[in-house]
Description:
This protein has helices spanning 3-6, 23-37, 45-66, 73-80, 88-110, 121-133, 175-186, 196-213, 220-234, 245-251, 253-262, 279-303, 306-322, 330-340, 347-352, 356-368, 392-395, 402-413; strands at residues 141-143, 149-151, 163-164, 167-168, 342-343, 372-373, 383-385. By secondary structure, the chain is mainly alpha-helical. The strands form 3 sheets. Strands 5-7-6 form a 3-stranded antiparallel sheet.
Amino acid sequence: MSIKEGVYRDPTTMEPLYPEHSPELESLAMTLIAESNGLAASLHPLTAHAIADFLRPMNSYYSNLIEGHDTHPIDIEKALHKDFANDKKNRALQLEALAHIKVSERIFSKCLTVEFNPYSTDFLKWIHQSFYDELPEYFRKVKNLEGDETDVIPGEIRTCFVKVGKHVAPDWKHLSAFLNRFETYYNPSDATNRSKIRRVIAMAAAHHRMAWIHPFVDGNGRVVRLLSDACFRHEGLNTAGLWSMTRGLARNEKDYKANLANADLVRFNNYDGRGNLSNSMLTEFCRFYLMTAIDQVTYMKKMLGIDTMLNRIDNYVDLMVAKGLLKHETRYILEAVFLKGEIARGEVERITGKSDKTAKAMAHSLIKLGLLRVDVTNHLSPYQACYPISASPVLFPSLYPTGKEMDMLNAMKGL
């Protein structure tokens, strides 16, 4: 049988779009809602904003890693400062990371209105176009099923047949019908989706079904994970951007991909739901997805605890003092901006107990290390919290894989 004979053409073939009644999934959804509600409560909004900025490169790192693109966090930080590699491949990887960071930031500003539907075809196309518009030519060509090279056109739905693993995605000539069904069914404003618990479970189911539809010739993995970010934001489960679903998926990549593949399967028997696809496997994917989300929320709750965060700030300053890069009293500046989000420039002199000249020099040393930011065009602007990637092994340990953090620590010690 040829691939053309084996593809799906009717949107009903992706049923069920929502797992049949599962008390376990409802319990997990309630836990996720409860845990995420208090995540940003103890942080000043400016501090939360600074941490969200700090986490976007990490989110980019893990999403691209799932696709097999391992860009070192050190290289991502260099790219943020316009310091690009000379060789074509590593420069392309840096630009790919920046593309993800930029799109992620733009998404957060689009998801605030109640009537917004993150599952709309227009939004999915916008994600894809925004991402690929930023990519170099290096990542804009892929090989089709016949082995011929084809261009990836930003924001355009595929016009060819595709196969992912054992899954043959729907016929490209019928994709509009699949996408219309997807957009309508998962629309948060639809009367059937009034329950927040249902919408949270639906987010998990939609993650798989969008990957199953595979609407673009390439980039579907990044699009579906950015879609998840938008859904969490829209539902108020990650409004401050303080945790990363993608980190959890990447750290459990084998299980993630296995659960995605299993949810592609047709139903096993008459006891496995009433749709074409397996209800039990969709339920299992949703369980994995929600448990991963809960794990990441609880992890960041512990990470951002005030006492533990202040202790890590002290540890960081001790390391920099030993290197002769900071003064002991700079810890008071970092602690203050973490707790308050920002402090007036004149406040530095008071909290450090040093002269105006020395206080300004200490603030400048923190700015140089990327630990403070200030509007240099306005001499009255305050110092605000800022967290560079290079400081993450000490300030936010275990965000990145151990090997990468060791490289970052060694680079930090060698300053």
